[in-house]
Amino acid sequence: MISYKIHRNNIDSKGYSIINNIFDQTQLDAIVDIIEKTDTGRPSFRKTNDLFAIRQFLKEIPEIRSLIFTAKLNELISRIFGDDYFAVKSIYFDKPDDSNWFVAYHQDLTISVDRKIQLSDFGPWTVKYQQFAVQPPINILQNNFTIRIHLDDTDEQNGALKVIPGSQLKGVYRPETVNWGEEREHICAVEKGGVMIMRPLLLHASDRTVNNKKRRVIHIEFSNIQLPAGLNWSEKE
Question: Domain containing 205: what range?
């Protein structure tokens, strides 16, 4: 039985929590089957020797939504965060078994929106992979959360996230200012079929793969905030 209160407390204090056994093998096989049958030549797909990524994942492969938003995952979201959250950004990451790709410590400071307009407290703006991204007021980032669905067993050998627990409570926290005499790094190992829930402001990173095992993750960001008039979440249904 899932102790929702414990996970809610973990997210509030540490900035993350890990819950295994959310998806069974049959469900994972169905998800992977759809991904593998998808045309990879679209503009929002990125494929290199070190990484295969699908941006706007839920929009690019809409038929996968029913396989991801199972009764178990929906209950998890509802019990921890309430019923008014919706998906606003989605990415599929496949780190191959021989990948040298790594990501340095950072916070997820931008949101994906449908256009660029001048708004107080929104900025700077960037355009990546045909998407508008902007840093919003910090209250939006503090309110949002991310669910990372793991399609493979993941540990420090194949790119599990490294995090600094509690860093989400420090606002915009630049990696170059981290005092490693005070902070402690934690490796977030997650079993196949498990999920990691995290706040965008949690400082996180990942290392290269060294054990020749894949690391496939579906990353979905959620919000319950309506953006100012004229601006919309780019992936909200």
Answer: 4-106+145-223
